[in-house]
Amino acid sequence: MSNYSLSTRVCKIAIAICFFSVQINAQEKLYPNTFPLDQVSLTNGPFIKARDLNIKTLLEYDVDRMLAPYLKEAGIPVKKASYKNWEGLDGHIGGHYLTAMALNYASTRNAECKRRMDYMVAALKACQIKNGIAYPDWGVGYAGGVPNSREIWPAFKKGDFKAYRTAWVPWYNVHKMYAGLRDAWLYGGNQDAKDVFLKFCDWAIEVTSALSEKQMQAMLDTEHGGMNEELADAYQITGDKKYLVAAKRFSHNQLLTPMAAGQDNLDNKHANTQVPKAIGFQRIAELSHDDQYTKSSNFFWETVTSNRTLAFGGNSRREFFPSTAASADFVNDVEGPESCNTYNMLKLTEGLFREQPDAKYADFYERALYNHILSTQHPEHGGYVYFTPVRPRHYRVYSAPNEAMWCCVGSGMENHGKYNEFIYTHTKDSLYLNLFIASKLNWKEKNIALKQETSFPDEEQSTLTITAGSANFTLMLRHPSWVKEGTMQILINGKTTPYKKLPSSYIGIQRKWKKGDVIKVIMPMQTTIEQMPNVPEYVAIMHGPIMLAAKTATERLKGLVADDSRWGHIASGEKLPVDKAPIIIEDNTSAIPGKIVPVAGRPMTFAFANEKIINSETLVLEPFYRIHDARYMAYWMRLTPAQYVNYLDSVAKIEGEKLKLDQRTVDFVAPGEQQPEVDHALRQENSRTGSNADEFWRDANNGGYFSYNMSTQGLTDLSLNVRYQFATVAGKKFEIYVDDQKLKVVDHIDETRKHGFYHEEYLIPAAMLKGKQQVRIKFLSVSGRDTAPVYRVRLVKNN
Q1: What is the domain-level CATH number for residue 730?
Q2: Quick one: pLDDT at residue 18?
């Protein structure tokens, strides 16, 4: 546990923190339809267990290490070294942690969470003051921990983006602390946090004040989190229109304009770069009623949830939105939907629901909450999940406290502290029951208290009881989309209440409610099948809103609990052949649900009956969120008997080639993709990126180059494997280096132009590798020619 006494120097600068009784219900000021978190308490069930385990996990982290980047950049002595934090992104985790402390304090009154929250705010206030004194030309109001801030921001302010572009997403980094400070006030009632937040917003306005609109839009090409959201929040807090103007300046037209026109331009875009932008669009629309922002945020949500989302609520692969043609990557790759994306999609969903309380938003929220968010916490040690693969028979890996500091560790810290946020909402005299989660509500405004008792999804019902008070209001009960028309039952004090609403709607019941009233909702659940978007031969099995999956093995789970390595968040264990995975053989997809039957005495547990499953012994289906420390089946190949022979032969051949290359691979990088390039310490000059045939590439021109650090694992018998495309390489000539030694002159001047990807391998002399754990692979343009576009770079074993 941290020593909570700041250095004398810091203490002299910091101002005493206000006691929690001031503004503890502050979140009502930004989100008027939500209840203060202390008015909604979780009772029994998986969510309170996850929340309490998360608090225990959070308190294992060291606050002084969280604060070190901010103190360091402000020139204040640090008490402890900062977390490893994915070198170059130091500081991003601190804002998430501050939000988590505020959320859990507001929900549980945990004194230790409050103490840590207040301690962090005091230190950040001291940093902000010191930055203003030490760096008056650029640092007034700055409260960030971006590495090399003293080089990046002064040049940036003058329109020189060179240091900004070589740093790792500086605005994304500081955005996390903007959100943390806002939340320390919003949920934790800390008035100093509000003051620091607003001054930090003023800094963002000042540091960008000299930039033209063209420069602003160029700047926004780099991931910047939800900066437009934070500035919109500042506008709502203060009413000062300068913040709304700034929020619009921080809105990326590359996404805003096409989305407002109903055009989906998301193919091959980094997913979690886009979702926070849309959250900001929604906040601007909510506060300014600007039609362009309204249309853009609504269309973004519709196209992502309808066309780009898997059955469990997640989206993206390798962090990017795939095109229709590339959607099979969900099966082929192991870097499945990213937890951060769903964290942000839920935030966008809540915002849209505030403006229009439509049941479709609650339907999506429920599905993503149960199947993805709840599944991303380890049920024993509390570790967080980055990628959720749906490749048949693969697995997830988990973080460990004080080690892996991924982005999804940061959002994971927050996820499990706000399960009580959306169960109930209110608008005027209407109370919305959005989620069927065991809980209690103390609606102070109406002097009404109620409890919801349920073990959903283990039972198909929920019971609400008014436990105190009486008042006139309309109870809006959600009719879930997954309950068939005419099958939902509502009983009030034992008597059936008729209704006319269809699935995915709210049923309004207006009356004077009083202590002792009991509302029972019965919601029969059905088993259904959902096809993978754009990959019809793969299906997921749903029971109500819950995705069912099956454990297949618990062996060979390499890196199950990740270390601090740069690629520890990827489940890098052996890929098992998809053609050897369980396959459902069925002529009629709609017949599959009827052949899935409950297992007696085991709630939400099912088995296949009279269904032909190839490559399988007995499999048990259960909620995906209950499966951990195992390989699993989340999506299933479904073939007709006729398809089985022909299709499987072609799949087996392709799989064999892919797996053989994977087994030889020591390290690889995907040029043009943000995270892999950062992970491999990209250096470049006169280099471009793009995508072609749904694959990303990088090249260099005019004497330019690009290079990556790649691991050799200490091996010396290696080759360099490079992926090219025939149609794009003619006329190219370039050199490849291993460290500073030339490996190969590649001459594609006479290359025959035809379509298709292919690999070339270049044997690396052992002397170039001897005694090295990593080497830098460099592609250099020469003779006035461009390098070929490079699609994949691998170090591979020769045997």
Answers
A1: 2.60.120.260
A2: 35
What's the pLDDT at 15? 31
pLDDT at 27: 54
CATH number assigned to the domain comprising residue 437? 2.60.40.1180
Cα dihedral across residues 618, 621, 627, 633: positive or negative: positive
- Alpha-carbon Rg of the chain, whole angstroms? 27
| CB crowding 519-545: b at 16 or more within 10 Å, else e | bbbbbebebbbeebbbbebbbbbbbbb
pLDDT value at residue 94: 96
- Alpha carbon 726 to its chain centroid, in Å, reads 35
Beta strands of 694-791 (E only): which ranges? 695-711, 718-725, 733-738, 741-747, 757-763, 774-781
- Which pLDDT belongs to residue 349? 98
Q: 435 is in which domain, residue-wise?
A: 424-456+461-522
Picking from 581, 616, 650, the residue at the C-terminal end of a domain is 650
What pLDDT is stored for residue 750 in this prediction?
56
DSSP conformational letter for 728: G
Q: What is the 3-state secondary structure (H, E, C) of 151-172?
A: HHHHHHHCCCCHHHHHCCCHHH
Q: Does residue 747 sit in the same domain as residue 704?
A: yes
Q: Last residue of a domain, which of 160, 186, 209? A: 209
Same structural domain for residues 70 and 193?
yes
Residue 749, pLDDT score: 64
Within this chain, do residues 446 and 504 fall inside the same structural domain, yes or no? yes
Sign for the pseudo-dihedral over CA of 535, 541, 547, 553: negative
Hey, which residues does 398 pair with through a beta bridge?
385, 561
pLDDT block averages, 10 residues each, the chain of length 799:
42 35 52 96 97 98 96 97 82 96 97 98 98 98 97 97 93 98 97 98 98 98 97 97 98 98 96 98 98 98 98 96 94 96 98 98 98 98 97 97 92 96 96 98 96 98 98 98 97 96 97 98 98 96 98 95 89 92 92 95 94 87 98 96 79 79 91 86 92 88 94 95 77 89 84 71 95 96 87 93
Task: Decide if 187 contacts 27 (C-beta within 8 A).
Answer: yes
Look at residue 30 and tell me if it is in a domain: yes
337: in domain:
no
DSSP string, 564-585: SSTTTTS--SPPPPGGGS-EEE
Residues 543 and 470 reside in one and the same domain: no
Degrees, nearest 5: CA angle 385-390-395: 50
Total structural domains within the chain: 4
Angle at 196 between CA 190 and CA 200, to 5 degrees: 145
Q: Which residues contact 166 (CB under 8 A, 6 or more apart)?
A: none
DSSP reduced 3-state for 799: coil
Q: How many CA atoms lie within 13 A of 551 on its CB side?
A: 12
277, 255 in Cβ contact below 8 A?
A: yes
Q: Does residue 589 sit in the same domain as residue 479? A: no
Beta carbons of 791 and 671 less than 8 angstroms apart: yes
- Do 11 and 93 lie in a common domain? yes
β-pair type (470-479, 612-614): unpaired
Are 472 and 499 a contacting pair, CB within 8 Å?
no
Closest by CA to 187, choosing from 110, 294, 242, is: 110
Task: Report in angstroms the alpha-carbon separations of 538 from 228, 372, 535, 652, 692.
Answer: 38, 19, 6, 16, 25
Per-residue model confidence (pLDDT) at position 592: 95
Q: Which amino acid is at 777?
A: I
Amino acid letter, residue 703: G
C-alpha separations of 444 from 39, 510, 728 in Å: 8, 19, 67
With respect to residue 297, please indicate whether it lies within any of the assigned structural domains: no
670 and 783 both lie in a single domain: yes
The answer as to whether 538 is a domain residue is yes
Domain identity same for 508 and 585? no
Q: What's the rounded Cα separation, in Å, for the pair 451 and 532? A: 38
Say if CB 172 and CB 224 are below 8 A apart.
yes
